[in-house]
Amino acid sequence: MTGPVTGPVGGPVGGQQGAYLVTGATGRLGEATVRLLAERGDRLVLTGRNAERLAELRKSWAATSRVEVLEVDVTEPAGAQHAAAEAARLIGPLTGMVHLIGTFSAGPLMLTDAAEFEDLIRANYLSAVVATQAVLPHLGRGGRLVYFTTPLTGEPLAALSGYAASKAALVTWMRSIAHEVKRRGIHANAVSLTIADTPEMRRERPGIDLDHTVSPELVARAVGFLTSPAADGIYGGIIPVLGKFSYSSALAGPPPGITGPPPGAGGPGREAP
Ligand SMILES: NC(=O)c1ccc[n+]([C@@H]2O[C@H](COP(=O)([O-])OP(=O)(O)OC[C@H]3O[C@@H](n4cnc5c(N)ncnc54)[C@H](OP(=O)(O)O)[C@@H]3O)[C@@H](O)[C@H]2O)c1
After folding, report:
1. Mutate to test the pocket of ligand 1, among 29, 33, 149 (most ligand atoms within 8 A of CB)
2. Fewer Cβ atoms within 10 Å of its own Cβ: the N or the C terminal residue of the chain?
3. pLDDT digits (tens, 9 = 90+) for 228-269
């Protein structure tokens, strides 16, 4: 027996195009995500706090008239409600939201102020709550909600407690609300990624093992999948886009097929012949 038909959702298989609110589109993953959705014909309203970056994004899509931008802070309930209402007015009934808002910081517990933990919780978790509450009334029957997380929620590392905990909150919350909204044919899912390989990241972390990063285009493809009929059966899922990243430990030795010390423990491992 097949499940309920979830209504029109944009994508390469569905025929009918989608209308998405893309929150936090001014960030590192924004461009690739917007490109994938706009090129397949979806109409988008992009939000952000950076007016200059929003103007650039709008300009690069001006020829298609598929992309509108809105300078607004979606982490505040009033801003989120304004963004969702404007998006519905500009591009019609929404088919979903791609929630890119998030932030990162690291530091040992005893050197990290409580305010930094609050910032992480606000940007990584509460922003999703507030934006989702705003957008749900504008979805009909059927829709897609996509969030972004990290493998650190399952295996947190030292000095990343605030970041990992804020994303763990997001993921647990997402899996719970996925059960609430699925009755309306709405799919809430997340993409889990390691570190996106962007020019900013390469500047910040010279010498990083690029095999453990992922291209924004591959992350965008996972968004494309989750917002397509190919994901009709997935509710509350976490899609890993981890590249060749894997945890290693001196106890376990290098992963199969790799010789030498694990990355970060004296030099990169070498592929076994
Ligand atoms: N990039 C990665 O390596 C990576 C890895 C794992 C997970 N993720 C997650 O994937 C999502 C997108 O990543 P990204 O690299 O595109 O993120 P990003 O560049 O750091 O930021 C994405 C957006 O979030 C907004 N934002 C951050 N803090 C905010 C706050 N306190 N209030 C309002 N807006 C705020 C940024 O606005 P401004 O431009 O105004 O700052 C930007 O529009 C995020 O949830 C991130 O945590 C990313």
Report:
1. 29
2. N
3. 999 999 999 999 999 999 887 788 777 677 666 555 544 555
